[in-house]
Amino acid sequence: MDQIRIGMFISEKRKEQNLTQRQLAERLGITDRAVSKWERGKSLPDASSMLELCAVLGITVNDLLSGEVVSMNSYNENIEKNLLEMVKQKEQSDRRLLKTEIVIGVLSTVFLFAMISIGAVFMMMQEKIWVFFLLFGIGLLQLIVCTMFCLRIEQVAGYYACRKCGYRYVPTYGSVNGAMHMGRTRYMKCPQCGKRSWQKKVISAEDK
Ligand SMILES: [Zn+2]
What we know:
Layout: H1 3-16, H2 21-28, H3 32-39, H4 47-57, H5 61-66, H6 72-126, H7 129-156, E1 159-161, E2 168-169, H8 173-178, E3 180-182, E4 185-189, E5 196-202
Antiparallel strand pairs: 1-2, 1-5, 3-4, 4-5
Helix pairs in contact: 2-3, 6-7
Bound molecules: zinc ion.
């Protein structure tokens, strides 16, 4: 924040309202020395007098802190820029999530086969069938947990696109879980047009 600029802006707006420093100070219930200090850029209005000052001068707090009247155009531009930045960040984190899902899937499958192999060795070398079933069970259980976790990622990361009408949406966990799938493409009913189709996973909410 540029204190000098804000001070000049306060002075300019005060004169537009045909107020002396003393008159402005009286309306705000402060000393004219304080107003003089703002206008020379020596200090900023504190929070308690800022709203009232802006009301008297007919400006917004955003104007005051910018040291100029912020036009509606650049105001909207600012909001749009922030929104775009947020969308971009969500797309990036969704991509990361979907990569994580693959890593989890691979590790989980490797773990299951490791358990089966170790179990098989115990069964053949030491005739301990129960060890085989124990390890097989552990491997299967972690595969189920990891699968549930991966399904959750597939549900929330990005969107599914309907083949019939192009509608993009985040499905419920139940419909992701219950649908036939090939890779990440799932056979689901579109909530927009109600038709069933093989819906692709897409990262963006809009067709790019
Ligand atoms: Zn549809």
